[in-house]
Amino acid sequence: MPGYEDLLSYRQCEEIYDLTVEFCDKFLPGRENLRMREQMIHAARSAKQCIAEGATQGTSLRGYIKMIGVSRGSLEELLKDYEDFARQRSIPVWDKADPRLREMREMVTGRYRLPSSPSQPSSPSYPLNYLRDLVKRTGYLLDKQRKSLEEKFVKEGGYTENLFKRRLRQRSLLGK
């Protein structure tokens, strides 16, 4: 199994993708919502897949950093879609310290299921706020991951740069 699958950022992107599909199926039905549904699902999928693509390049740390940035951008796009959904439907957006969010974070374990309001299970308020919070937390992780990769790149150099250094060492050993 590739190491990127163990990253918390990847696992959370997978959760975001799965729950976004479920959210869109449940709260954005019908032809009139098709475009928004497709955009949201694509953004969620892109966030997850870009981590995998970047991590498995193997030879390009710079490429990995770029793909983490693309993943981060996809999450920001998705966050704006969730916020638009809330604004257009007058759904209150909770602060990150809201106790309902903490409670939902603790409840979600194993395979992902959309959390729902105990009193209104068909309301989008709980799942929307949970997903919005999860997207923000995952974006934070990706920012930290990108910064760490950038520091590694500065310290160790990139693949092409390191190949060039090896080539120079080889030439000096051969006396060319």
Write the layout of secondary structure elements.
Layout: H1 8-27, H2 34-55, H3 61-88, H4 99-107, H5 125-156, H6 159-174
Helix pairs in contact: 1-2, 1-5, 2-3, 3-5, 4-5
What's the helix count?
6
**What percentage of residues falls in helices of 4 or more residues?**
over 70%
The CATH superfamily title = 23S rRNA-intervening sequence
* CATH overall fold name: de novo design (two linked rop proteins)
What would you call the structural class?
Answer: mainly alpha
| Span of the ends, CA to CA | 43 Å
The CATH architecture is Up-down Bundle
- How many domain regions? 1
CATH level 1 name: Mainly Alpha
Low-confidence stretches: none
Beta-strand percentage range: under 5%
Account of the protein in words:
The mean pLDDT is 88. The protein has a single domain, classed as 23S rRNA-intervening sequence (de novo design (two linked rop proteins)). It contains 6 helices and no strands. Helix 1 runs antiparallel to helix 2 and helix 3 runs antiparallel to helix 5. By secondary structure, it is an all-alpha fold. The radius of gyration is 20 Å and the shape is elongated.
Q: What's the quick description here?
A:
The chain has helices at 8-27, 34-55, 61-88, 99-107, 125-156, 159-174. With 176 residues, the protein is mainly alpha-helical. It has a single domain (3-174), classed as de novo design (two linked rop proteins).
